[in-house]
Design brief:
The complex is a heterodimer of chains A (975) and B (113).
Chain A (H helix, E strand, L loop, with lengths): L4 H19 L5 H21 L1 H5 L4 E8 L4 E7 L1 H24 L6 H20 L3 H19 L6 H32 L4 H5 L2 H5 L4 H15 L8 H4 L5 H10 L1 H16 L3 H23 L4 H21 L3 H32 L15 H15 L5 H14 L6 H29 L16 H19 L6 H12 L16 H25 L13 H24 L4 H23 L13 H20 L4 H21 L3 H22 L15 H29 L8 H12 L4 H9 L1 H23 L12 H12 L7 H5 L2 H24 L7 H19 L1 H7 L4 H21 L9 E6 L3 E6 H29 L10 H10 L1
Antiparallel strand pairs in A: 1-2, 3-4
Helix pairs in contact in A: 1-2, 1-5, 2-4, 2-5, 4-5, 4-12, 4-16, 4-20, 4-21, 5-6, 6-7, 7-10, 10-13, 10-14, 12-16, 13-15, 13-16, 14-15, 14-19, 15-16, 15-19, 16-17, 16-18, 16-20, 16-21, 17-19, 17-20, 18-19, 18-20, 18-22, 19-22, 24-28, 25-26, 26-27, 27-35, 27-38, 29-30, 30-31, 31-37, 31-38, ...
Chain B lengths: L1 H19 L4 H21 L25 H32 L11
Classes of the chains: A mainly alpha (975), B mainly alpha (113).
Chain lengths: 975, 113
């Protein structure tokens, strides 16, 4: 375990750094740089130090079980290949941080930039070091997300926003495909563990699910690596700051797709499907990218297309399925990262120092910045595959592989020619980059006078170019041991013989190289005239714009389809929706009845009691009455509703549910108060107005009645069918048996709530608190309808009576009318409060508990409001319901977390009986504290809701907005 | 008794559904309350009906599960009662706000044309 700890640190450190950087002040430029640089450097060193562990075919692992039943573990894994990639990611990360220090303008919020960059680096390391495929996909999507944020860093810029959105849409969609593909792999192999997957190659290739798996995984990898036909997002991603382009869009993120292809190469490659899909995607990308790169006018655009083309080359190599080609692919991945990152940085310097990236405007920069120019030339030569540079070595290997024989097909036979063509293109665009920018007459009309950049800005390029040269000249002494470790990690015993040398004698690849170099130079000379015209976009395929197609699809799916679906299935009216919902529920319940028939059970029910029958005759009449009266007689409907509620409550008592009965009764009271408070703001409606029902509404009513009857009788049937069946053995038995021995309470319902299912209850009180706060905030901006603003009619009559009587002051009747009940209610406060505490305390052993106690307490408070009026109460008592809620939730959460201190899971309860002098033995369970939290939240939430509503009548009415013209018309009809 | 309770659930559901489909917000709020009674009784009924067997342990040392009514549906319903109060409150306030803003108590925020 301990040997794997650095792996965890390498992944976690960047995220921690990102969080810290995100909290720095916007102008803490140097702080952010030192933080990011320090973290990147320590990650690099940590990674480099792991080399001895992987050198001799070793694999480092660290795993933490997460959901073992689903095969989901958090595991890290490092072998020779992933080590090489990890060094690449962290090492270039260091250089990019240093470069960005000078590149970013002081006006930009630099800490945010480094926060994103570090988080991206962490996500990238997460991909590279994942030992579990699901985890890999998770980090994969994280890189898409941070790439989105980094591309859109200059979000005031429309092209940055569009580019970011496009990159995210394409790569994240690919990521989703990858997820499904990985799930399929997991299904085939039976595990997501990378080691197990890697050892099940035959099983995967022979599975009937191989093809869909392959296609889905390839969709993920090809979108990420900007392969044809998904390549179009990469040039648009160039709207990002140049350090981002250098890091994400040349060296690392786009290589994630390649990384995945190499990682899964041993298990997925070697089939015809793999060959045809991967080779043709790679070949198209290689040719199109290189061709388009020649004709770019933007320096970064040229580099972007060249990146696409090189990624195509690597993909093509991997598609060939031969071990030698895989070696070439790994080698070229490294080489490309070094020369392309340095070229991007050079392009950034040119942009930074001259103010433009347009090749048409740039010229003759060599005399202004000779050192940068030389460095760029070397890097570009590496890109073109000139001997003595690292690009040459991997290109030779590529030519050798292209010329070799793989699968007897036209595609395979034509490969050498395409390879030479693409290589010639790459020579041409490299020449254009160098010749167009650094040579020729000195540029005029540049936004800034160019000069050499600060030395430390150039330093990363110097380092990378030195690497290009060293690897190119003495490969055996530099890259070879690392490369062979990496290659062996991927290929294992299939590792072929290969030689890294500059000179292999006069052979086929050398000939191809020479042809490519010469024809590239000739091509560039021939194109001089055309290029001088400065036309945007490559000829012939100018009209083929992936971006245009992408946008059209996007509009089609997210706009047209969505609109027509909404037109088809949507409505702005609530009733049809509810009607559909109820009808659907009825049909869904009827369907099994229709198929399997309905048989009543044989369970011996409880004996009929006439009193109960009478009770529910009243209850049923109440319910129907409420339904009948709710339109015109709201108060009556409310009373009837209360009646039905009371009878429900009695039913609970009858059938041995005292806890439910208490809670129901108390909640019934607060609900009544609540609705009463709301009634005042509803419009008056009198029976007899607009009584003539139209045919349409008659039909609607008939239909609704039928639906209601159907729903009601359906529920009766189902309820009866269940009630007459014997109760099977359920988990309730466990609760009953363990309530006392493990929960320490006799009231099983309460023990379930605060102990066994405590976490659910915790969620429940949080919901309650959220509702209360929502109600409160909705009411803060409450505007009553204009006609409800003035005092209610009854109050006005009372006031008129007062002012008419000489011995009464206005408001006397209002304050007098419940004087005696009011005083009684005030006296009741301590009594009800005591009942609340009593209910709460006995809850664990007898019916009661936090919910019941809490509602009782809030009733005590509300009664004071009703008796004395809002102002009277608030002059004497500050209730502070929000604090009640907050403290209650804290109390419940702290009780739950308390069990961590003793090494138990969240909300494990503890109890024992304590002897308190004078009282005797009292149960003391930690669940009581949790229940106290429930109590406080319920008090706070209930009181907050009711008081907020009650306050609306007291406060000065907000001046109602002039109603919209349409609304006025409607109101005329309404009144 | 089972039949009576089943019928009661049916009547409550029917009245609730009828009100749910009405156009006035107040009708809907009463309907939802009736419906929540029905649902609570239904869930409660899933534990079957027992008279005089409240799930409060008499003698905690020798527990016989067959002596007590099923506590689990009761625990579920208890929280459901409190949550349905919260729902009623939220709906009431939304209804009032909508009435204030749109000038009508129609569920769609505008009268049918």
């Amino acid at each position: 375990m301990s040997s794997g700890m650095p792996l965890l640190a390498i992944v976690i450190l960047p995220f921690i750094g990102s969080l810290i950087a995100a909290m720095l002040r916007q102008n803490a430029r140097n702080g952010a740089v030192f933080l990011a640089g320090g973290i990147a450097l320590s990650c690099t060193i940590l990674t480099a130090l792991q080399y001895p562990a992987v050198r001799n075919r070793g694999v480092l692992r660290i795993g933490v079980e997460w959901i073992p039943t689903l095969g989901l573990d958090f595991s890290m894994r490092l072998d020779g290949f992933t080590w090489l990639f990890a060094v690449l990611v962290t090492g270039i990360g260091c250089l990019v941080v240093l470069y960005a220090r000078y590149y970013m303008s002081p006006a930009d919020p630099v800490p945010r930039f480094f926060a994103f960059l570090l988080a991206f680096m962490g996500a990238m390391m997460g991909i590279v070091l994942s030992g579990n495929l699901i985890q890999l996909v998770f980090f994969w999507e994280l890189t898409s997300l941070f790439s989105f944020l980094l591309i859109g860093y200059w979000h005031h810029n429309a092209s940055a926003r569009d580019g970011a959105r496009m990159a995210l849409t394409v790569t994240a969609t690919g990521g989703l495909c990858l997820l499904v593909g990985v799930l399929l792999i997991g299904h085939i192999v039976g595990s997501y563990d990378l080691d197990q997957v890697l050892s099940s190659g035959d099983q995967i290739r022979n599975s009937p699910l191989y093809l869909p798996t392959l296609i889905l995984v390839l969709l993920g990898a090809l979108t990420k690596s900007a392969q044809f036909p998904f390549h179009f997002w990469l040039p648009h991603a160039m709207a990002a700051p140049t350090p981002v382009s250098a890091y994400l869009h040349s060296a690392t993120m786009v290589k994630a797709g390649i990384f995945l292809l190499i990682l899964l190469w041993p298990v997925l490659s070697g089939t015809e499907a793999w060959f045809y899909i991967v080779v043709s995607a790679g070949l198209c990308t290689l040719l199109l990218g290189a061709y388009a790169a020649i004709f770019q006018q933007d320096l970064k655009g040229l580099l972007a297309y060249s990146t696409i083309s090189h990624l195509g080359l690597i993909t093509l190599l991997l598609g060939l399925s031969s071990p030698l080609a895989a070696v070439a692919a790994i080698f070229h991945t490294m080489n490309h990262a070094t020369f392309k990152a340095s070229l991007f940085m050079a392009a950034g310097i040119i942009d930074h120092e001259t103010g433009t990236r347009d090749i048409r405007r740039l010229s003759g920069l060599f005399r202004f910045m000779p050192i940068t120019a030389t460095l760029a030339m070397v890097a570009a030569a590496a890109m073109a595959g000139v001997p003595l540079l690292n690009g040459f070595l991997s290109k030779e290997m590529f030519f050798a592989e292209a010329a070799a024989f793989h699968i007897d097909s036209l595609l395979d036979h034509s490969l050498p020619y395409f390879a030479m063509l693409a290589s010639a293109f790459s020579v041409a665009y490299s020449l254009r980059f160098i010749h167009g920018v650094f040579f020729g007459p000195p540029a005029t009309n540049l936004p800034r006078t160019p000069h050499e950049p600060p030395h430390w800005m150039r330093f990363p390029i110097e380092l990378l170019v030195a690497v290009c040269l060293l690897v190119g000249i003495v490969p055996a002494m530099t890259i070879k041991p690392f490369l062979s470790t990496a290659v062996y990690a991927v290929l294992g015993p299939n590792t072929p013989y290969y030689s890294l040398a500059i000179w292999h004698g006069f052979n086929e690849p050398l000939l191809m190289s020479v042809i490519a170099l010469v024809s590239g130079i000739v091509l560039y000379l021939l194109l001089q005239g055309y290029l001088a015209k400065g036309v945007e976009g490559p000829p012939l395929v100018r009209r083929l714009k992936g971006q245009r197609i992408f946008e059209r699809i996007l509009v089609e799916v997210s706009w047209r389809w969505a609109r027509s679906l909404e037109r088809l299935f949507g409505t702005y009216r609530l009733q049809p929706q509810l009607r559909l919902l109820v009808a659907f529920a009825v049909v869904a319940a009827l369907w099994p009845l229709y198929r399997f028939g309905l048989a009543m059970g044989s369970h011996q029910g409880t004996a009929l009691d006439p009193a109960f029958l009478l009770l529910w005759i009243v209850g049923g009449l109440c319910a129907i009455g409420a339904a009948y009266q709710a339109k015109f007689h709201r108060l009556a409907a409310m009373v009837l509703l209360g009646g039905a509620g009371l009878i429900t409550c009695i039913t609970f008592v009858w059938f041995s549910a005292p806890d439910l009965a208490i809670t129901q009764l108390l909640v019934e009271i607060v609900t009544t108060v609540l609705i009463l408070l709301g009634l005042r703001w509803l419009p008056k409606r009198f029976e007899g107005e607009g009584d003539a029902l139209s045919l349409g509404s008659r039909v609607r009513r008939g239909r609704d009645l039928m639906l209601a009857v159907a729903a009601g009788s359906g529920m009766t049937l189902i309820a009866y069918a269940v009630l007459t069946r014997p109760l099977p053995d359920t988990i309730s038995r466990f609760f009953v048996e363990k309530a006392y021995s493990e929960g320490g309470g006799r009231n099983i319902v309460n023990v379930i709530l605060v102990d066994f299912r405590g976490f659910d209850t915790f969620g429940e009180i949080v919901v309650l608190a959220i509702v209360a706060v929502t109600v409160f905030s909705l009411l803060r901006r409450f505007r009553p309808a204009p006609e409800s603003v003035e005092a209610p009619e009854q109050q006005r009559e009372q006031n008129a009576h007062d002012s008419a009587s000489p011995d009464r002051a206005v408001g006397d009747t209002l304050s007098d009318y419940i004087t005696i009940p009011g005083i009684i209610m005030q006296w009741l406060f301590p009594a009800i409060g005591l009942v609340a505490i009593y209910l709460f305390l006995r809850g664990h052993d007898l019916p009661g508990g936090g919910f019941a106690g809490g509602v009782t307490m809030s009733i005590a408070l509300i009664l004071q409001y009703m008796a004395g009026g809002t102002r009277w109460v608030e002059a004497r008592l500050r209730v502070l319901p929000i604090r009640w809620m907050g403290l209650g939730m804290l109390c419940a959460a702290a009780t739950g977390m308390g069990s961590w201190l003793f090494g138990y899971p969240f909300l494990t309860s503890f109890f024992q009986y304590l002897t308190v002098p004078g009282i005797g033995k009292v149960p003391a369970a930690s669940a009581l504290l949790f229940d106290l939290g429930i109590f406080a939240v319920v008090v706070g939430a209930t009181v907050l809701i009711l008081i907020a509503l009650a306050h609306q009548s007291v406060r000065a009415p907000r001046i109602a907005r002039p109603p919209l013209p349409a609304a006025t018309d409607m109101m005329k009809e309404d009144v | 008794m089972e039949l009576i309770l089943a019928l009661a659930i049916g009547v409550l559901t029917g009245s609730g559904v009828w009100l749910l489909l009405r156009p006035r917000t107040f009708q809907v709020i009463i309907g939802l309350s009736l419906l929540s009674y029905a649902v609570n009784l239904f869930i409660f009924g899933m534990g079957r009906l027992r008279v005089g067997a409240a799930p409060v342990l008499e003698n905690p040392d020798a527990v016989d599960p067959s002596l007590y009514a099923d506590p689990l549906p009761q625990a579920l319903v208890l929280t459901a009662i409190v949550i349905s109060f919260a729902m009623t409150a939220l709906f009431l306030v939304v209804m009032l706000a909508s009435r204030g803003l749109s000038g009508t108590d129609h569920v769609d925020g505008r009268e049918e044309s």
